[in-house]
Amino acid sequence: MAAAKPDPIPDFLETSRKGVADADLRRKLENSTGRHLEHVAHMRAEFPGYDGERDVARRIKEDAIGRLDELLIELKQKLEANGCTVFVAADAAEARDYIIKIARKASARHVVKGKSMTTEEIDLNPALQAAGMEVVETDLGEYIVQLRRERPSHIITPAIHLSKEDIGQLFADQLGIAYTAEPEALTAAARERLRSIFLGADLGVTGVNFAIAETGTLVLIENEGNGRLTSTLPETFIAVMGIEKVIPKLADLSHFLEILARTGTGQKLTTYTNFISGPRREGELDGPRAMHVVILDNGRSAMLADPVMREALYCLRCGACLNVCPVYRRIGGHAYNSPYPGPIGSIVSPNLFGSAAAKLPFASTLCGACRDICPVKIDIPRILLHLRWKETQAQPPTKWPADARRTRAGVRRFARMARHPRTLRLLSRIGGWMLRPFARDRYLRRMPGPFKNWTRWGRDFPAPGARRRKPRGEG
Ligand code: SF4
């Protein structure tokens, strides 16, 4: 059965303006992302081999993506030999239809889900619900946003936009417990609810962090144990993965484990690393009786064919580039209108969702912080520029928005001027002199005229400096 038609996607500029105007949201994001960055810095300092492992992991990804077709064939054969049924879905609709067919065949009524961005990407929950099934997210953050009927706003911490007080109020309203903002009490309340849901579930669905071609093993990394319960308690289990999740060998995995949690959550290792190799075997006491693996393309082959874009397929979905991004930290994940927000979302979303996400590559200052923190060193700024170029080439300049036309004219004027260093120096001096009255503590808090948008939302700008005097003795 086809999924219900999604709501029209709101305009990015509109939703980002809303995000940036929400001071409370900014405070929550700054707190959480700031804490995360501290943990990551600590972890990196503690592990001298970190940078070496990043290089090794990147080389493994380069190799895997370079021979994806060969590895996917090997993975499929090994999974089937392990007793799994494998379905390769060209797009989101094919993946949803297959999962619903399996769910119906299993007479499933109650579905539990582990954390999975790929199932967000294919809009699985509304489709399962439209087919008459009850779907419950079992990752705590996902459970919280599901209770609020929202999408996750971060790929690792779905409820990053909420405070513990928000969650306390939500649980009091929705679960009928006495209001508390104690994290332990809130976790215990969710666990209590989810326990009976797990026991009554007939279908489990999770994502996949890595799929090992050599052995046909799926690796699921998590902190709460819900992924383990989702993949073992129900009679039928479906794992959904993008084609890029395949890695060649079991021995490769350790290099990713060394860097993934350190960068993603600031931990040495996540609490659970699950290795899933197939359904329950003869004589085994637990595990699903049937296991399906959905391998999703949905625009990834086109990314693979583009020599600049293909690097985006190295992504481990660690979420660190979101935490470090000055744009994400101001506007929050919901503003992106995509399950993949932040820098990584800005490069993969236009490929996965087409023109609806075409503006996202422009949501960046190109500061390069995302590239610096990325555990596999994806050159996100380069890909952003590539996508901006593609987007502007796709339409004649007469169709560009007025601000893009103005920017183009301004850059052309600047390029002409930059060919005459004397004029440029003179004009810079005049500009600096004119802006000086607006400076405070060597920063411009409010820019005048056409530059006002820069400082409008609390960003400052270094004041043009006084002319540097030559130190004595300098030649
Ligand atoms: S692009 Fe890099 S930093 Fe961002 S989510 Fe992917 S692996 Fe993490």
Quick summary of this structure?
By secondary structure, this protein is of the alpha/beta class. The chain contains 21 helices and 13 strands.
| Ligand species | iron/sulfur cluster
CATH architecture descriptor text of the domain at 47-298: 3-Layer(aba) Sandwich
Helix/strand-derived class? alpha/beta
Number of strands: 13
Rg from alpha-carbon coordinates: 25 Å
Can you tell me about this structure?
The protein is an alpha/beta fold and about 475 residues long. Helices cover about 50% and strands about 10% of the residues. It contains 21 helices and 13 strands. A hairpin with a 2-residue loop joins strand 11 and strand 12 (about 445). Helix 3 (about 50-65) packs across helix 12. The radius of gyration is 25 Å and the shape is globular. Iron/sulfur cluster (SF4) binds near residues 318 and 374.
How are the secondary structure elements laid out?
Blueprint: H1 12-20, H2 23-46, H3 50-66, H4 68-81, E1 85-89, H5 92-105, E2 110-113, H6 117-121, H7 124-130, E3 134-137, H8 140-147, H9 164-175, H10 183-200, E4 203-206, E5 210-212, E6 217-222, H11 226-232, E7 236-242, E8 246-247, H12 253-264, E9 272-276, E10 290-296, H13 300-305, H14 320-324, H15 328-331, H16 342-353, H17 369-373, H18 380-393, H19 402-418, H20 421-435, E11 439-440, E12 443-444, H21 452-455, E13 461-462
Helix pairs in contact: 3-12, 9-10, 16-18
Descriptive key words:
13 strands, 475 residues, single chain, alpha/beta, four-stranded mixed beta sheet, Rossmann fold, six-stranded parallel beta sheet, disordered C terminus, binds iron/sulfur cluster, 21 helices, disordered N terminus
